[in-house]
From TrEMBL:
Organism of origin: Oryctes borbonicus
Organism superkingdom: Eukaryota
Descriptive protein name: K Homology domain containing protein
InterPro entries (alphabetical): BBP-like (IPR045071), KH_1_KHDC4/BBP-like (IPR055256), KH_dom (IPR004087), KH_dom_type_1_sf (IPR036612)
Residue ranges occupied by any K Homology domain in the UniProt entry: 79-178
Length: 308
C-alpha cells in the first residue's frame, strides 16, 4: 500500500511539473509577442497580452489563492492581496526614486516591510543597477524576469485574513507614497545625518575606551615609556571624555555662582550712595486748575538732597 501511495504522489508531482513547464512555455510566447507589438499602434492587443501575462504569473506563484471575486469573512481564510504602485519616473526623470526607497543598505525598504507587514519589491524597467544585464535578462524571455518589460513600480503583497490584509495594504500605500514625492535635497540630508551618526559612534567608542580597564594599563605603560631618559617625543594630550567635560562645566558653573553670591553679600555704605527723600507740599491756590473737572491739581513734588 505504501508503495502504491508513493507512486500516486510521484504521478501528481510529475503532472504538476509538466503543467508548470507548459505555463512557462506559454508565458515565453506571450512575452515574445509583447516585445514585437507596439503599444501605440495596437493598444488593445497590448492590454490583452498584458492581462494574460499577469494571469499566468499568478498561476505560477505558489501559496494561497489571490483575492477573488468573493471574500469569505466568516471563515477568515487567509487571502493574498497584491498591488503594483507606479513610480513617477516619467514626471521626474532625474530624481533617484530607487535610492530613496532603498535607503542606505536597504534600511528604508526593510523598515517599511516591518511596519506594514507586507512584502515589497522594486520591479520594472530601471530596477537593476546594471543596464546591460537588465537588457540581456529582458531579451531572455524567462518568466521570472517578465517584470522587466513593465514600467518601474513597487510590488506590494501580503497574506492574511481579508480585513487584516486590506488594512496592511492601505497602510503600505500611505507609507510608500511618502517616498514617491520627490525631494531634491534628501540626499544631502541623509549624508548629513549619516556623518552625525558616525561622529556619535566614534564619541561613544572613545567614552567606552576611557572607562575601560585596558585604558588604565595602557596609560601606565605609556607613562613609563614617556618618563624614560631616551624618550624625547612630545606627549600627546589625552582625549577628554564626556564625563570629564561635564565635570569641568560643573566646576565653572559653581565658581560663577559663588562669585555672584559674593557680589550680593557686599554691605551698602552710606558714603557710596546719595539718599533722596521725597517731600510732598500742599498744592497752592496760585497753581490750582479751576478748569479741571475735579477741582484739584496734581501735588507739587520736591526732592531734597541729603549727603552723609
Amino acid at each position: 500500500m505504501t508503495g502504491f501511495r508513493e507512486k500516486e504522489v510521484e504521478d501528481v508531482n510529475d503532472k504538476s511539473a509538466q503543467q508548470e513547464e507548459k505555463l512557462n512555455e506559454y508565458l515565453r510566447q506571450l512575452l515574445s509577442e509583447k516585445a514585437v507589438i507596439s503599444e501605440k499602434q495596437c493598444p488593445f492587443a497590448f492590454r490583452f497580452i498584458d492581462e494574460e501575462i499577469s494571469r499566468i504569473q499568478q498561476k505560477l506563484i505558489k501559496g494561497p489563492p489571490r483575492d477573488t471575486r468573493y471574500i469569505d469573512v466568516y471563515h477568515e481564510k487567509p487571502v493574498k492581496i497584491s498591488v503594483k504602485v507606479l513610480v513617477p519616473v516619467k514626471e521626474h526623470p532625474r530624481f533617484n526614486f530607487i535610492g530613496k526607497l532603498l535607503g542606505q543598505k536597504g534600511n528604508n525598504l526593510k523598515q517599511l516591510q516591518e511596519e506594514t507587514m507586507c512584502y515589497m519589491n522594486i520591479c520594472g524597467r530601471g530596477s537593476m543597477r546594471d543596464r546591460e544585464k537588465e537588457e540581456e535578462l529582458r531579451q531572455s524571455l524567462e518568466p521570472k524576469y517578465a517584470h522587466l518589460t513593465e514600467d518601474l513600480h513597487v510590488e506590494i503583497h501580503t497574506i492574511a485574513p481579508p480585513a487584516e490584509a486590506h488594512t496592511r495594504i492601505a497602510q503600505a500605500l500611505i507609507q510608500v507614497r511618502k517616498y514617491l514625492v520627490p525631494e531634491y535635497n534628501v540626499e544631502q540630508t541623509e549624508r548629513f545625518f549619516q556623518s552625525k551618526k558616525s561622529i556619535l559612534v566614534k564619541l561613544e567608542e572613545e567614552e567606552d575606551w576611557m572607562d575601560s580597564p585596558k585604558r588604565s594599563m595602557y596609560k601606565e605603560e605609556t607613562d613609563v615609556v614617556r618618563k624614560g631618559p631616551l624618550s624625547r617625543a612630545r606627549p600627546r594630550s589625552p582625549i577628554t571624555s564626556k564625563s570629564s567635560v561635564m565635570s569641568i562645566l560643573n566646576k565653572a558653573r559653581i565658581a560663577m555662582e559663588e562669585s555672584h553670591n559674593i557680589e550680593h553679600r557686599r554691605t551698602v555704605h552710606s558714603h557710596d550712595y546719595e539718599e533722596y527723600e521725597e517731600n510732598y507740599r500742599p498744592p497752592s491756590k496760585k497753581f490750582m486748575d479751576r478748569s479741571s473737572p475735579y477741582g484739584k491739581s496734581a501735588p507739587d513734588v520736591c526732592y531734597t538732597k541729603r549727603k552723609y
